[in-house]
Write a structure and sequence with these properties.
Largest sheet: 8 strands, parallel, barrel
Distance between the termini: 40 Å
Oligomer: single chain
Helix content: 25-40%
Bound molecules: alpha-D-glucopyranuronic acid
Number of helices: 23
Radius of gyration: 26 Å
Strand order of the largest sheet: 6-7-8-9-10-11-12-13
Structural class: alpha/beta
């Protein structure tokens, strides 16, 4: 987004208006607020370009387009913009496809539309019957919907529209939220209330919230929702639940959101009454085919299945001596006649403890490359362990050229402060997407595997583990909404920067006042690195508390070794870190030679990943000139100090936004500051018990003992 095409807003006026016009703000409207524009210059320009709306064609989606436009425009422009059907005048907003509108068919847009596919769109100032109009066109009505939301975003972020000229095509085809929601309405790793899906009341009562959920998703390009937890319950495949699912699908349909379900592999036994779920058993094959036919009778546009198999206790084909490919393909064959897909997760756990968990997915899936049906994705988490604050990219990216890989990011902040820390995740997403795998030489970034261009895949996809619940502001923390937003915007356009997305979101969610937007955007952009520093600096990982994962737990050592912290940090009196070079687990050999070469030498390994790949002595010399021990201490302190700075920045902005959200964020930042100090002190004291070195003099000493931190118990943390 070019700032040169944006109107400049007068800050003082804004501050005043913010205080007066926004009261009782609870964040429910997300980024679709459509508050009245008060700047007269902007308002006048928009009024002269938008005198009437003409939407040509008829469909549920077009009805939704009209409703959104009328809400959005009347809200922002302070008066109804008439919807007309006959006469084009100067300043008409004309919306339609060439098939639904002769006026649009007559415009020179055919060549452009050849590039926009089903979902893409064009927004352009054109002469229609000799009158200057803004046209939104696409090949399909859904494209018109995405174009409409994009256009509204232009107004919401105060961009000039007089000579608007946008062609937009999504980077990936399947842009999905994964809800880890259970049928009893608890949400695994959910920190924003209960599950939105009120299974008990469905299908008879359909909450108005479902439509708002669909609108929010459509506005950022999300086109699918897996409704249920990957730790699946076979009950959802029974007729009773399919009827409920169909009711949700009906609300989502006009907004282009397809529903998907998680398929528990043992469902034929658990709800089908069979004695086996062996994917090669004819009765099992028949059961799934009939189940797919039954689902599609109720939900003709059902999206497909997401499957977690042979992982963390979930059943799978390996229970019957079959491979992941045999399991996935059996389901894929049942869905294929209906156009459905299977998303088979690569997040697997062996029943035996591996020498290095980071290697497991690659070891199991790489040999299966090319063996999956054409409607199967392998869904891969961004890193090889588990959504840690920082991980290197997953070695499967680039290693399975014969199989479409779907990206899985986690929006819910399981390992990044859960419900209370302000952590903007787009920089994490971008870091992974921009990593060069070298699969086909330089320039083989993860993003090119996800968008299909590197390996010429026809299906492409990206999934985000949802952070949405029944809290009035949907995500619990006002800033957690930005991670939902960023996921959608990025899956639509992988080339967007984290900075651009943050700015859009802030302008739409809070205010266009740059006195607010600029410093808060800076806070957001730094926030992920701050969290890495106070939680897991220099490549440390998986050192959180057991089970609920809230707070530090570097001492966790009991139970299954690859669920402990000591397995990952390997601290001893000699040093710290996981040796993944040839002298250790050799996980590095799963990467392409250029990456391996860079990472295997501690001197060329990025310091941000040093202890991920190396076990180094406490006196190892860092580029700052400090020893590893001193550097570790400094990072922990810097992380916690950065939160203090965020808090100061935030406090200085009082009065620029509504009081409710200002105070809510302020309160959350106090919790974050306390918890950052907890992470810092607990980890520094713990690692000191191995390093036997003093905390550098210039740093304040922890007030409490290691014992104190080890004894903190939190039995009631939500999300399990
Ligand atoms: C993590 C998370 C689990 C989740 C799992 C998964 O381990 O803690 O709650 O089920 O990831 O992605 O399947």
């Amino acid at each position: 987004m070019k700032s040169s095409t944006r109107y400049r807003i007068i800050p003082a006026l804004f501050a005043l208006l913010a205080c007066h016009s926004l009261s009782g703000e609870n964040g429910y409207r997300l980024w679709l607020r459509y508050d009245t524009i008060h700047d007269t210059v902007v308002l006048q320009a928009y009024h002269s370009a938008l005198k009437q709306i003409m939407v040509e064609g008829h469909s549920g989606t077009l009805n939704a387009v009209i409703e959104e436009l009328q809400n959005g425009l009347s809200g922002m422009l302070g008066q109804e913009i008439p919807l007309v059907s006959e006469t084009i005048t100067e300043g008409t907003l004309l919306i339609g496809t060439p098939a639904s509108s002769d006026r649009i068919a007559a415009l020179p847009v055919k060549d452009l539309l050849r590039r926009t596919g089903n979902d893409g769109f064009i927004i352009k100032t054109c002469l229609v019957s000799g009158k200057k109009c803004i046209v939104i066109t696409a090949n399909e009505d859904l494209g018109l919907m995405y174009g409409t939301f994009h256009f509204l975003r232009f107004l919401q972020t105060r961009q000039q529209i007089a000579d608007i000229d946008v062609v937009s095509v999504p980077s990936v085809q399947f842009r999905l939220l994964n809800h880890w929601d259970n049928l009893n309405r608890t949400v695994e790793r959910g920190y924003a209330g209960c599950s939105l899906w009120d299974w008990l009341l469905l299908p008879d009562t359909v909450s108005p919230r479902y439509k708002d959920y669909a609108r929010a998703n459509a506005s950022i390009g999300i086109n699918g929702a897996v409704l249920t937890n990957v730790n699946a319950d076979a009950l959802v495949l029974t007729p009773q639940y399919l009827e409920k699912t169909a009711a949700l699908a009906e609300v989502f349909r006009p907004y282009g959101i397809k529903v998907y379900l998680t398929a528990r592999f043992s469902a034929p036994v658990e709800v089908g009454g069979l004695s086996t779920a062996d994917p090669l058993d004819p009765q099992v094959i028949d059961w799934w085919q009939k189940k797919a036919d039954e689902i599609y009778r109720q939900i003709p546009d059902f999206g497909g299945f997401l499957v977690k198999a042979n992982s963390e206790g979930q059943p799978g084909p390996q229970n019957y001596g079959r491979t992941h490919a045999e399991g996935a393909n059996m389901l894929a064959r049942a869905l294929a006649p209906h156009g459905g897909i299977v998303m088979w997760r690569a997040f697997v756990y062996d029943s035996n403890v591996p020498e290095d968990r980071a290697k497991q997915a690659y070891d199991e899936f790489k040999p299966l490359d090319g063996k999956f049906s054409s409607n199967v994705f392998i869904q891969v988490k961004n890193g090889p362990i588990d959504f840690q604050p920082r991980e290197p990219f997953h070695p499967l990216f680039g290693s399975m050229p014969g199989t479409p890989l779907m990206m899985e990011f986690q929006l819910t902040q399981e390992y990044l402060g859960q419900g209370t820390h302000l952590v903007y995740l787009a920089p994490l997403f971008k870091e992974c997407l921009q990593s060069d795998t070298y699969a086909k030489g330089k320039g083989s970034e993860v993003a090119r595997i996800i968008d299909g261009t590197l390996e010429n895949h026809t299906i492409t996809g990206m999934a985000g583990v949802s952070n949405i619940g029944t809290d009035s502001d949907w995500c619990g923390h006002p800033f957690a909404q930005s991670n939902w937003y960023a996921f959608g915007r990025l899956s639509w356009d992988l080339s967007l920067t984290a900075d651009t997305i943050a700015e859009e979101w802030l302008r739409m969610t809070f205010t266009n006042n740059e006195t607010f937007v600029i410093p808060v955007k800076q806070m957001m952009m730094g926030s992920r690195e701050y969290a890495v520093n106070y939680m897991t600096p220099l490549g440390l990982h998986h050192i959180m508390a057991r089970d609920h994962h809230h707070g530090p737990g570097p001492w966790v050592s009991e139970g299954r070794p690859d669920w402990t912290s000591v397995y990952y940090h390997r601290a001893d009196t000699a040093g710290v870190g996981f040796d993944r070079t040839a002298s250790g687990s050799d996980a590095l050999s799963q990467y392409f030679p250029e990456v391996k070469q860079q990472y295997e030498n501690p001197d060329s390994c990025p310091e941000t990943l040093l202890l991920w790949f190396h076990h180094l002595p406490w006196d190892y010399r860092m580029t700052t000139g400090r020893t590893l021990w001193e550097e570790l201490c400094h990072r922990y302190y810097e992380g916690a100090d950065s939160v203090k700075k965020m808090q100061q920045t935030w406090k200085s902005l009082e009065g620029l936004i509504d009081k409710e959200r200002f105070e809510q964020v302020n309160a959350m930042l106090s919790i974050q500051l306390k918890e950052a100090g907890w992470w810092r002190d607990a980890c520094v004291l713990y690692f000191q018990s191995f390093s036997h070195r003093p905390i550098p003099e210039e740093l304040e000493k922890p007030a409490r003992s290691l014992e104190y931190y080890r004894n903190i118990k939190e039995p009631t943390i939500p999300g399990i």
